[in-house]
Amino acid sequence: MKARDIMTRPVVRVGPGTPVREAIVMLTEHCVAALPVVGEDDAVLGVFTEADALRSGVAGKGPAPDVLVCSTMTSPAETVGLDTDVTEIARRMLGDRLRSIPVVDDGVLVGIVSRRDMLSPLVRQDDSITSHLNALLSDYAGHRDRWTISVTGGMVTIRGAFTDEAERRVVTALAKTVHGVVGVELWEETSVTFGESRGAVGP
């Protein structure tokens, strides 16, 4: 799963000339931990975080009206690309104690990934994944019921007959496109004259 699959968009953002007081209001109103700071070309210049907001205050009185985001933001900002794997994002979040990371494409802000976004695939209902995957594989198979699908904790098991290794790869790839899937296991079930032969098949 990649950043593009879980990121939030559109992104609540500010410019370097935004007053800190206004940025703090945006943090609280939108319930976000950080605001990307972008230039006119939407290039990420930095991030304004809750920690930056706290540091901008003086003895709890809040920042002066003329204090701007550019003077308090964290810069340079940590960013990831659209195709950055979620495991790498999690590693950077934990290692650098980040609560969110902007997502860029050719240097332009296109989304943001928060810790909450990272958790969402883990709590998606298994029956929702099953329903989506059933529809996907039904379309692929010409609306014939060729496989049975079970999902537990995002782990998908697909049972049935597969034409060849190429089809197994296609079915596995299709399953992995469904949001919330954490793994795929295929079980070959082929009817024979005196019973059935079953065995696990690797993706």
What does this structure look like?
Pfam families: CBS. Its EC number is 1.1.1.205. The radius of gyration is 23 Å and the shape is elongated. It has seven helices and nine strands. 34% of the residues lie in helices and 27% in strands. A hairpin with a 2-residue loop joins β8 and β9. It is of the alpha/beta class and 203 residues long. It folds into two domains: 118 residues, CBS-domain (Roll), CATH 3.10.580.10; 78 residues, 2-Layer Sandwich (Alpha-Beta Plaits). It has a four-stranded mixed sheet with strand order 6-7-8-9, with helices on one face. A three-stranded mixed sheet has the order 3-4-5. About 4% of the residues have low confidence.
Layout: helices, strands, pairs:
Layout: H1 3-6, H2 20-30, E1 34-38, E2 44-49, H3 50-56, E3 80-81, H4 86-96, E4 100-105, E5 108-114, H5 115-123, H6 126-140, E6 147-152, E7 155-160, H7 165-176, E8 183-192, E9 195-201
Parallel strand pairs: 3-4, 7-8
Antiparallel strand pairs: 1-2, 4-5, 6-7, 8-9
The amount of helix comes to: 25-40%
| Average pLDDT level | 86
**By helix and strand content, what is the structural category?**
alpha/beta
Q: Strand percentage, roughly?
A: 25-35%
CATH topology of the largest domain, by name, is CBS-domain
What CATH architecture of the largest domain do you see? Roll
Distance between the ends: 16 Å
Based on the structure, what is the oligomeric state of the protein chains? Answer: single chain
- Write out the strand line-up for the largest beta sheet, numbering strands in chain order: 6-7-8-9
Under CATH, the homologous superfamily of the largest domain reads CBS-domain
Which regions contain 5 or more consecutive residues with pLDDT less than 50? 191-199
SSE string, helices as H and strands as E: HHEEHEHEEHHEEHEE
CATH class of the largest domain: Alpha Beta
Number of helices: 7
| Largest sheet composition | 4 strands, mixed
What does the overall shape look like? elongated
Number of domain units: 2
Radius of gyration: 23 Å
Using DSSP, what is the number of strands? Answer: 9
